[in-house]
């Protein structure tokens, strides 16, 4: 969050919590997760942390509020009485209670509330508030407080947890920090130096302090701002000049900006569960001392501008030769810490030289080998030619020492140097490094991809070099380095294909294994190889130094320098008899102790630190793991907290339920993304692989389910099936009913036809039959009268009348049967024509009102017949009974047909009963058959209203 870091805290799962002046950062080895006021933090500054349960971290901000992180979600803790002090430090003491050192005083957390502890017995005017820091020693709380908080240093107060009373105090102490180094001792750092508590007086009396004794090996001039004791009982003290580590025996090591610290001013020191030491500061943030086996000496620390250009350690020796070719100086670092220096001021001193030592000491330069001779009296050295290989164009910069102490070197030929003899063997091309195995065989790989094996026989004047075997095209890329391990394997480093391990049966290659950056190498360019006493392979690359082991034919790679944030090119590595490794880099000399600090049985656990739904605003996956069908774009973040070479952690996963059966390729990416997962139940299995081999593979799993959409659920499918079955049944029922309806319509049509036929037959029988019978009778009467010579004009006239009526009847029948007349327009036209003609024949004026536009809607024959006969019957009654001179017919059409017939006659009068006997009843029945309305109104004549729906 901010480079001004204040303090560190680590939870039981290994995550680091870093308090800064702009919020907190949580580091799990792969990512930083940050919180500040924008994320709900009560204050930008956090004073302390405490772990209160599984995945529950209390955060004590610089405010009157307590907050907690539960599964990555920030919440407020509200005490029972809703009072929260401003807590500066939170301590869990031996009595089982948490104590809050707050601005308002000293509090104990009881029953979900902060209970203030009364402190009595201080001098008058000294108020026990603004408690800043404290430590428990032997059930006593030693506290630093500053009532005025003016930055003038703190007062000391001692509180007895058992007796619950003040035991002692010391005001105007100007203390900065407290430390319990061991036992019941208490150290106090003040502006004037370090002191320890000598004794406690009676309750309420001042505490007596004394300087630290000389036996503690603590420098007297230390002005300390931070004190810390690690699990190995080393004391760490931060001063304005850097940090010093003081071991039990008094050995002091300083860590400053010259050997890696970014600043000499530290705000806190912390040791994590893996024994890494962390430093916080308010300038550059965070520094980590991840490997206390490693010490770095930059060239800037060497005196008078001298800096080594090469190192050499003889076989079976603890002495280290450092050669400075720029100043012609050789330094011998003796095991007892003493140093011998030898110089040469000759102007013809060979440039670009390499110093080596065996039975004799040599300086290799260009195409010449010089015998190096030291003068112990004046600490000068002289040179004499040992071997001149002028035709050679390559220098002698790769060497090895055989079992007899002879030096072997190479250019475009192999050279064995004994005391009195030089033995050579030709090589086909340039060689960068040679190695000698346990059988005193020399192995070298040339840049032409050929591997040579030579045997050294005898020694001194009888020594020989004989070629045992040559291997062609052994590796994929040009070799640059080579070494032999104690198992008889030959390791070859290449220009850009990484590292190869050749396993042999005799001089026959049995198998070949390859390691690259995928397996954890710092770089695929390996320029130097070395096998140490423990059979570890050390690979020097332009990006750093790697420690490589072969375990069950699998490479285990530890990035030694990169894990300590050293990225300088590494040129060479040597080992002393006692095991100390000396490393020559471009930035300085590095030493590495092979003895690793105990790991405290800590093993990083793999967990799903965060799981979100990426399409819904980064919402968290529900605790039950059930997601809706559209929440199928998921992001899972893995965490396997380890801070030893965390760049060597690889993550792999397998999603069971997706159909994939193989694990993903190991990657440094700790995030897993899934897009458009189909509905189903899944188990995400993940594993963290630690390439350095310090921890076993950690595995974890997470089960979740993406629910199907509602249209794919079992209940919807069941409902759909039932609905489909119901639709089929309804369709079948509709089909059957439709078929029956069609059959019914056909039958009704047949019945209607039969009915119409019957009606026509009846009409013809009733109307035409009666007329024909009358004509028959009149005809017979005429015949009889003719025989009797009686007049027949009356009968002939009657026949004429009956014939006209029969013609009219037949016309009506034909009109009713004609389909062309099945419209309301035809009905009204025919009816209007009949009314006008009939009334005119009887001397009655006819007035008709009808719409300008009459629709051509279809009407049935029954409708036409009933309307026509009703109108006909009404007009017949007018002519026969009304004695009217005028008839008014009004026709209106909407959803119904309205016909109003009004006359100016005498009304129904006494004829009502007669009329209702047959005629009126028939008219009413006809209209009711059409679902219409029929009424007769008597008002200055007679008015008949008919209203018949057109779509009954």
Mind summarizing the main beta sheet? 8 strands, mixed
CATH-wise, what's the superfamily of the largest domain?
A: YVTN repeat-like/Quinoprotein amine dehydrogenase
Helix percentage range: 10-25%
From the 3D structure, determine the CATH topology of the largest domain.
Methylamine Dehydrogenase, Chain H
Number of domains: 6
First-residue to last-residue Cα separation: 85 Å
Number of helical elements: 6
| Radius of gyration (Å) | 58 Å
Structural class: alpha+beta
**Could you say what the CATH architecture of the largest domain is?**
7 Propeller
* Shape call: elongated
| DSSP strand tally | 68
Mean pLDDT, as a whole number? Answer: 87
- Residue windows where pLDDT falls under 50 for at least 5 positions: none
The CATH C-level class name of the largest domain: Mainly Beta
What would you say this structure looks like, in words?
The chain has 952 residues and is α+β, with helices and mostly antiparallel strands. It folds into six domains: 1-77; 85-294, YVTN repeat-like/Quinoprotein amine dehydrogenase (Methylamine Dehydrogenase, Chain H), CATH 2.130.10; 305-392, Thrombin, subunit H; 607-709, Sandwich (Immunoglobulin-like), CATH 2.60.40; 713-817; 823-952, 2-Layer Sandwich (Heat Shock Protein 90), CATH 3.30.565.10. 16% of the residues lie in helices and 42% in strands. The protein is built from six helices and 68 strands. Strands 13, 14, 15, 16, 17, 18, 19 and 20 form an eight-stranded mixed sheet that branches. The protein has a five-stranded mixed sheet with strand order 64-65-66-68-67, covered by helices on one side. A four-stranded antiparallel sheet has the order 1-2-3-4, with no helix packed on it. A hairpin with a 2-residue loop joins strand 50 (537-541) and strand 51 (544-551). Helix 1 runs antiparallel to helix 2 (793-817). It is elongated and about 200 Å long. The mean pLDDT is 87.
